[in-house]
Amino acid sequence: MSQDIPLLSTVYQKVETNHDDINEQEEISLEIKSISEESYKEEYSGVKSESSSVVEKGLYISKSRKRLIHNACACFGAFASICCLIYFVIVASVMIRVGTDLKQCFESNANVFKEKSIGDRSINQINLNVVSGLVYVEYEDRPDIYIRVWDNARSLSYVDADTFDSGITVKNSTVHIHSIAPSFNLKSCIHAKVEILIPNSYHHTLSINGNVKLGIVKIKGNENKLVGIDINVELGKIDVQGVIVSNTLSLISEVGYIRVKDVEARHNAKLQSHTGYIRTHDVKAKNFASST
Length: 292
Fold this sequence. Notes:
The structure is a single chain. This protein is an alpha/beta fold and 292 residues long. It has one helix at 4-106; strands at residues 111-118, 125-140, 145-152, 165-171, 174-180, 191-199, 206-245, 248-291. The protein has 2 domains: 1-107; 113-291, no CATH class.
């Protein structure tokens, strides 16, 4: 018995020693595992923080670009608004100036006035020759053919004996009306206004022929009869209403507007505007030609 005890003690010591080694290895493994997890967490945290920084930087750049675009659009909008306002002010100023000039031009009392009453019932033709101005031919209840001519200017400083060449003459049953003046301009506003009033009871049929460089010719009747109408306006407007033309109706405008309403042409009707517009309403003609 005394010899077996040391052997058991030795065996126990070896087993205990092996057990301690195993514990130490497990502790070392746990420590290594703990260190590995901590290193992984640190690395993951670093990668995550770097990713967050990149995302935040991208968002900042995107916001900066949007802010820059917004500011640029706002500046452009403000600049465009200011330009439009300036343009509107300039256009309004020019329109007001032009309107004032035209009002002073056509409402001026500076003129030379001429008139003529014609009681001769054998008149069969009226000839017009006007450089610039307004010509009105109307029928009304009166006993004679009455003609008035105004030679107008902006002010009296433009009115003298040599400024206008105008007149009303009667020769061989024909009335000649002329107003020759310098070309129209806004500085002098030299232009004519011609009124021809014909009796409704005038039974002798008339022909009206005319040439106007710049202006308006208006003929208005009440189903009155005319032999013919031949009007040529280079730049302006021709308006014919309410007449019966027994022969030929010819209205020509180089640049302008032609309107014909409630007219009967028993033979030929020719309407021509090289550059402009033609409008007709209730027009009757045996041969009708219209061209623009």
